[in-house]
Amino acid sequence: MVYSIVPPQLFSVEDYEKSSVKHMDHTAWSYLVGGSADEITADKNKCAFDEIQLQTQVLRDFAGANTRLNLLGSTLPFPILLAPVAWHKLFHPDGELATVQAASAIGAGMVVSTQSSVLLEDVAENATKPLWFQLYIQPDRMFTAELVKRAEQAGYKALVLTIDAPISGVRNREQRVNFHLPQGISSVNLAGMKRPAVHNASLLESPLFSGQLESIPTWQDIEWLKSITSLPIIVKGITSVADVEQAITLGVNGLIVSNHGGRVLDTLPSTIELLPGIAEQVAGRVPILLDSGIRRGTDILKALALGASAVMIGRPYIYALSVAGAVGVVHLLNILRAELEAAMVLTGCRTLYEIDRSLLWKS
Ligand SMILES: Cc1cc2nc3c(=O)[nH]c(=O)nc-3n(C[C@H](O)[C@H](O)[C@H](O)COP(=O)(O)O)c2cc1C
Ligand SMILES: CC(C)CC(=O)C(=O)O
């Protein structure tokens, strides 16, 4: 069922999550909510925010209060971006066209996946606000270069290079429901791409270690990418301090602390636990974004207090997309924005730039 107005009794991300079960089939639901293996990291991403407690700062002056920020040359009205999520048509018949309508209407940053179910050009044509393009480097580097050129020509303002999923995670939940794309939904941006021949490994060989890893991305690909595009490059999937230095040395323009929503390597720490160490290493040299587990405005406040400039959400906006299309996505963003504003007022922060560790309670 597709609503043109927001259905009643939806007040939080959790309400949308519960409602969305009824708006998609069980296979798509399993793909959406699932994490890798035992889903320990996926669960931890959310619980770790609850472990951090806040401290009020009262009787402050709020004249001129706002949630605006400047990020890589764009002004955003609030620090919540839509993370790249594959195949929106699994969740709503209009797919990414509904999502981009919502993002444009409310002015939210949106990152369009390489694996979108609507052509990257068609998404851009329907946007009235700047978009970023998420890049999965493909085994065929010529095709990858073409993809980057297409994103540039379509007007995308930055490339978000995902580095944490060179291979698929152990997705038991997907295996249990035999997840596969239904007819009519595909990675349209990759149509016509040559795929490497599948090497049929014998029982004695490892399918992964017998050829499949030869074309996976390496740090050299960032140098290569910089040589073929002038778009800013933001690296998504940073979970280690060692990788920070490598990425900054190569001249990337931003970092996203992300464990892919717990969908790739299980038992990684939550991103909010990783953030302080990574922010210390970055020391303000490039902006940091964080995703994985954001479900409340207070989560956003905590991420900003610990060093992020903005956050991205993945599953939450897809829940809303499935329940009420573009209207749902706008409503969900408004819920999170209002929760963030309330949290800012109650912790005494007039602007995002006043959010710091002083609002975290220390026992
Ligand atoms: C269904 C689904 C598909 C995703 N597809 C992509 C993708 O195509 N590219 C990518 O970089 N990340 C992808 N991600 C990861 C998200 O960009 C983001 O890191 C993650 O969802 C954040 O966690 P959250 O869902 O708890 O907010 C996907 C996540 C989900 C849930
Ligand atoms: C097509 C997939 C690789 C998309 C993805 O990143 C995910 O499902 O987490």
UniProtKB/TrEMBL annotation:
Q: Which residues form the active site?
A: 260
Cofactors: FMN
Instruction: Give UniProt keywords alphabetically.
Output: Flavoprotein, FMN, Oxidoreductase
* Keyword Flavoprotein tagged: yes
Q: Where is the FMN hydroxy acid dehydrogenase domain?
A: 5-363
**Where FMN is bound, by residue?**
84-86, 113, 134, 162, 236, 258, 291-295, 314-315
Q: Extract the Pfam families matched here.
A: FMN_dh
Q: Which GO terms describe its molecular function?
A: FMN binding; oxidoreductase activity, acting on CH-OH group of donors
Give the highest taxon in the source lineage.
Answer: Bacteria
List ligand-binding residues for glyoxylate. 31, 136, 171, 260, 263
Entry keyword Protein biosynthesis: no
Family that this chain belongs to: Belongs to the FMN-dependent alpha-hydroxy acid dehydrogenase family.
Which protein are we looking at? Alpha-hydroxy-acid oxidizing protein
Question: Which organism does this record belong to?
Answer: Entomomonas moraniae
